[in-house]
Structure prediction request, 272 residues.
Amino acid sequence: MADGTSAGSAERRETQRFGTIIVVGGGCYGSFFVRQLGRAWRAGAIAWDTLLVVDRDPACAVVQLPESERPRELRIAITAWRTFFDEYLSNAARDPDGHANDAIVPSPLMPHLMADWLVDRAAARWPSRRVDVTPLESAPAVPWQRAGEDGTHYVSFADWMCPINCVEPVRCPHTREARSWSMPAALREYAAAEGSAGREVAGTFVFHCVHRAYGVGMIDTRDVLAADATIADRGREGAVFLLGTASHCHGAVRRVVIGAEGKRPESRVGML
Prediction:
């Protein structure tokens, strides 16, 4: 998932500077992203303090990269994704300024990890209240969608197979016409329509995977932290939130219902 800028135009921009860049997964996708980021660094398109790859497999593809293909300041965390983000994002929430320039490179096949953390944070913040992941109450207006067993709703403007390295340019490579859609905007419109139908949403948070350089898209850590802070504020009396991670063309969204005080959870459908 990425936003549409070509590698060539990335080379002409001022260098983008990051603190820590986290790559989710060290397998075939993660190793591709790591190599591309190395090329972006050498071209002066991107710079970082630390490039951190997270994978539970100590023999993943990134671990096995030859020294010549390892970008500078590469680190590898051998742990489960959810375990990593629980620690990383919780620490970042305590020191947001120290992580203001961090970014996350999602894996195309990862679960809805940012929503996992936000739901877990809400449950820990209000242990005496229900925090449920529930099915969407109506279908978004997109060509392709599917509900997952964990309550995540997957959406796409493409009913065809897209290449993994598509940067979603303004002219779609498949249709050969102007790309007239953007999933973050569509999800915000969906939330507004829900409100008009009497199903109020207290907050819609879409973590936009934006192309940064050389075919690598990222979401900003600060956007996830801002969502957590807003949920803490608006969820005090109970509320409904939509949590999404999306590029222009594809996305995943969850409907999270935080109950009022005194409604202790019995079982949480879709709760991870």
